[in-house]
UniProtKB/TrEMBL annotation:
Its main location: mitochondrion. Its EC number is 7.1.1.2. Keywords: Electron transport, Membrane, Mitochondrion, NAD, Respiratory chain, Translocase, Transmembrane, Transmembrane helix, Transport, Ubiquinone. Belongs to the complex I subunit 4 family. It comes from Aspidoscelis inornatus. It is found in: Mitochondrion membrane. Core subunit of the mitochondrial membrane respiratory chain NADH dehydrogenase (Complex I) that is believed to belong to the minimal assembly required for catalysis. Complex I functions in the transfer of electrons from NADH to the respiratory chain. The immediate electron acceptor for the enzyme is believed to be ubiquinone. This is NADH-ubiquinone oxidoreductase chain 4. One of its GO terms (cellular component) is mitochondrial membrane. The chain crosses the membrane at residues 21-41, 48-67, 73-94, 106-129, 149-176, 197-216. It is a multi-pass membrane protein.
Length: 218
């Protein structure tokens, strides 16, 4: 997010990039979305999966900022703020699981919904926002970026559609792997504490407020 902010601030004061210069960086950013999503689909490590999710979303941000249109920059800013809150909430949830199981392997984290129903609710909310489900602010940011890319080059809709589909696939894979399935034997797991619910609420409440009034960011 800091790198995306730097790109937004530095590019306007640089000489206007020509098409020949934009194409290589644009293709790297778009291809990176697909590659990181495919890696996330086969990732057994929960924190690594969330990290690859962040890399994939930042590919959209870079591609939007390179075009330098109002819609592209607005969508990039929306997506950076939205995914900053969403990704941080997912990392918090992953750390809460790690503190209880001392493992980041998805195989040992399955079945958590049975003993942590409130944590499962937080997982569902964070996962749905990570998938850019309407009408979340993540969806608004991605919609602006996809529209900008399609106006710049209609062929980009193929890559972005594949990337969006894969994002939904690995997010559902993460959610089902951690919340469903048979609970491993021999685990003594302490219940969730109030500070953990407060921490997650401080991530999700701003997302909900910005979703209800997005012109605060514009």
């Amino acid at each position: 997010k800091l790198g995306g902010y730097g790109i937004i601030r530095v590019l306007p004061i640089c000489p206007p990039p020509n098409t020949t210069l934009i194409y290589p960086f644009m293709m790297l950013a778009l291809w990176g979305i697909i590659m990181t999503s495919l890696i996330g689909l086969r990732q057994p490590d929960l924190k690594a999966l969330i990290a690859y999710s962040s890399v994939g979303h930042m590919g959209l941000v870079i591609s939007a900022t390179l075009i330098q249109t109002h819609w592209g920059l607005s969508g990039a800013m929306l997506l950076m703020i939205a995914h900053g809150l969403t990704s941080s909430a997912l990392f918090c949830l992953a750390n809460m699981n790690y503190e209880r199981t001392h493992s980041r392997a998805l195989l040992l984290l399955q079945g958590a919904q049975i003993i942590f129903p409130l944590m499962a609710a937080w997982w569902i909310i964070a996962s749905l926002t990570n998938m850019a489900l309407p009408p979340t602010i993540n969806f608004m940011g991605e919609l602006l970026i996809l529209t900008t890319l399609m106006n710049w080059c209609p062929l980009t809709i193929i890559i972005t559609a594949i990337g969006t589909t894969l994002t939904a696939a690995y997010t559902l894979y993460m959610l089902l792997s951690t919340q469903h399935g048979k609970l491993p034997h021999g685990l003594s797991l302490p219940p969730m504490m109030t500070r953990e619910h407060l921490l997650l609420a401080l991530h999700m409440i701003p997302l909900i407020l910005i979703t209800m009034k997005p012109n605060l960011l514009f």
